[in-house]
Amino acid sequence: MRTSIATVSLSGSLTEKLTAAARAGFDGVEIFENDLLASPLTPEEIRARCADLGLGIDLYQPMRDIEAVPAAEFARNLRRARHKFELMERLGADTVLVCSSVSPLAVDDDALAAEQLSALADLAQDFGVRVAYEALAWGRHVSTYDHAWHLVESADHPALGTCLDSFHILSRGSDPKPIEDIPGEKIFFLQLADAPLLGMDVLQWSRHHRCFPGQGGFDVAGLVKHVLRTGYDGPLSLEVFNDVFRQAEAGPTAVDARRSLLILQEEAGIEALPAPAALTGVAFAELVTHDAEPVVALLAGLGFARTARHRGKPVELWEQGEARVLVNTGPAARRDGTTLAAIGLESPDPAAAARRAEALLAPVLPRRRAAEDAPLDAVAAPDGTELFLCATDRPELPNWRADFEDIPHTAATPAPLGSCRVDHVALTQPWHHFDEAVLFHRGVLGLDAQESVDVADPYGLLRSRAVTNADGSVRFPLTVGAAPGDDTAHARHIALATDDVVAAARRLTEAGGRPLRIPANYYDDLAARLEFADGELETYRDLGILYDRDAHGVFRHCYTHTVGRVFFELVQRDGGYQGYGAANAPVRLAAQHAVR
After folding, report:
1. Buried (b) or exposed (e) across 65-103, using 16+ Cβ within 10 A?
2. Cβ of 231: how many Cβ atoms within 10 Å?
3. In a designed cystine with 497, which of 195, 206, 329, 423 is the match (CB 3.0 to 4.6 A)?
4. Is the pTM of this model over 0.85?
């Protein structure tokens, strides 16, 4: 289907917005009136610019406070409308959005509203313009889509139809199924937006917290299915008011928007995409550093052994159990310390996973490699993390492990962390990429998004949302700060699963490691809230182990000190515990701030 985006959804000048929309692959745009008023270009120049970019102008919006007003006021409204219709002729736009009135002059009179909408449509028809009437969720007298449709049906004018907006419908909890009773030819336009489920004034919710489909809590795909059953064949158009999007760079935001519509069309059964290849685990995490000594000492303290070296690059492989960490001291290393730069993801069909990623506009990364190196597919996540698609245990497919030469080593027996594997990798996101990152990991990688949680940090509030596969072998808690600078203060971390976190923490301490020290007040509170076996809580206090439990199981975890911008977490999950110890996060964050 044809795709469109409202210019209000993007940041920058109108020219920058149009360019970003075209480059992202949109077919058309909704011109928001404020963008036109602020542009130095004439309507004719805007029309030509859109034509040069291959964009249609699908809608001009908004026209406000038109209907159900006294005669003198309506006469003034028609004068205003005539001017806008003349402008639309110059612009080359043939559909105008009219929002249900919020004017204090409007009266609760459906017959008058239908009569005046018909008169407006008469005037519009003279200019070759169609009127798409939309119910604002906070409209003074018309606030639901079925009421708006009743007025359109009563007016019975060929140039008057309705505009359906997923936010206005779903934010009120309206049932979208009766949309199917509206003739498709009378749905002149469809605007789409998602939103997190918040308990707040609907106007403020709409103006500041909309997001692209798949990034919030609404069933936007379900609504689209109802609309399509009417025979609607117009564009799928995004209208998103969002404070973050309006401050972020227009180009990446437009790509994020376009990706959301591709995923939406797949979910609604409109367009098929390459199927997601189920991820089955973490093959490796790659740390990039200009000074390997601190991170190597930390890995050794955790019980990792250096097992192999890359044939042609300054990259070493450290292993313990099923957990693998690459230490890269190449030219890409940052001067401000160690960073988590790449993650290898196990897939039964890496090529299929790469095809899906490319179809969903994920940047495919060029890779400098020697002729004998394994030809691995890699894509960039929105935060710049390189994601390598691997099949480590399938000898018939290219194997990254073959690029490494084994080196003599002695593995500890028994392994210090037991059956060690990567439990999860926590990825701090740039403040303007959080919603995009959730959609990327869900849509491109086929992971399921869990509920968003807020975490108190000593210097603000953090948002966190985990994405995971069905069996928990791939888990990414995604976290972002509340302000543009917050993400710089929070390092990323790799959580390692162990059979016995107490033994692992002791092993780290004995090897000279520095577990994160947790305030004694935390353990006093645990003692007040929960019962422990004799000496158990004292052990946790001595080793900096944090404790959480839910209805399904128990979670014990502790943290290392931070090296550069990376630290490790040791975790022990007992029973069916599936969380990440979010209740302990404020204490951990405060302890890390104290160390810094």
Report:
1. bbbbbeeeebeebeeebeebbebbeebbbbbbbbbbbbb
2. 12
3. 423
4. yes
